Structure formats: structure tokens, C-alpha cells
């Protein structure tokens, strides 16, 4: 029996932080990274996807690679904010507008850091686990768990 629901969008599934295998299960216990003042809950994830059973932590030390993804996201956001600043405000060597951009960009990156950390985990997992339209009939992808 096939699933009659439409295939969830790839980009929308990443932005809403859904499982890469079924694109329906939530990857984090709390969907709001900013709900609590102490940010200890940012990485609270179930061990498996509640919808398809895909294991999220594929092997020991798996999440170390998310640092590279987070760095790329920070660079992309910084370049985008620089281009927007250049178009809207302008850049000049005559005054200190570029320093205002640097300060505001740093503040922006600090404020969105919890969201970027979660998004980098989602994107990184999407590199290794692909969408399976028949996820109810097939078993999830497993990796070697050698210690």
C-alpha cells in the first residue's frame, strides 16, 4: 500500500527541520530553539524519527562535521548581509559605515546562532540519508557502529 500523501518539498523539509528519510518526522523535541533562556535544549533530539524510525545519530562523533556546515551558513549570511548593506546603505572609505555593518552582522550572527546550529545538523544529516518514498515498507539506513 503506497502513501497517497504528496511528497514533501526538499527545501521546506530542511527549513522546518524534518527527517531526511520521510520528510515528516520532527528532528528536535522542541521546535523552538529560543523557548528557554538557557540554551541547553537546543540539541534535544529523539534517538529515532517518530515517523519512519531513522536513527539520527548515525555513528559516534557524527555531529562533528556540522561545524563545517555552520561555518558555510555563517559565511553565506554574512555575504548576503554585506550585499544588502552595500545596496541599501553603501560602503565608503570616507566614513565608518563598514564598521556599523560589522557590528550589526556580528549581532545578527549571535542572535541566530541557535537556529543555525540546528539547521546545520539538519543539512548535515541530509548529506547522508536520502528520501525514501516507501519508508513504511523499507528499513532505515544503518551505519557501522564500531566503537
How many domains make up the coordinates? 1
Helix content: 40-55%
User: What ranges have pLDDT less than 50 throughout 5 or more consecutive residues?
Assistant: none
**Rg from alpha-carbon coordinates:** 19 Å
Contiguous helical run count: 4
Overall body shape: elongated
| Average pLDDT for all residues | 87
Can you walk me through this structure?
With 147 residues, the protein is an all-alpha fold. The chain is 41% helix and 0% strand. The protein has four helices and no strands. The model has no long low-confidence stretch (mean pLDDT 87).
Describe the secondary-structure layout.
Layout: H1 10-15, H2 66-88, H3 97-111, H4 113-128
Helix pairs in contact: 2-4
Short structural summary:
By secondary structure, the chain is mostly helical. The chain has one domain (10-30, 41-128). The chain contains 4 helices and no strands.
Provide the descriptors you would attach to this structure in a database record.
147 residues, 41% helix, single chain, mainly alpha
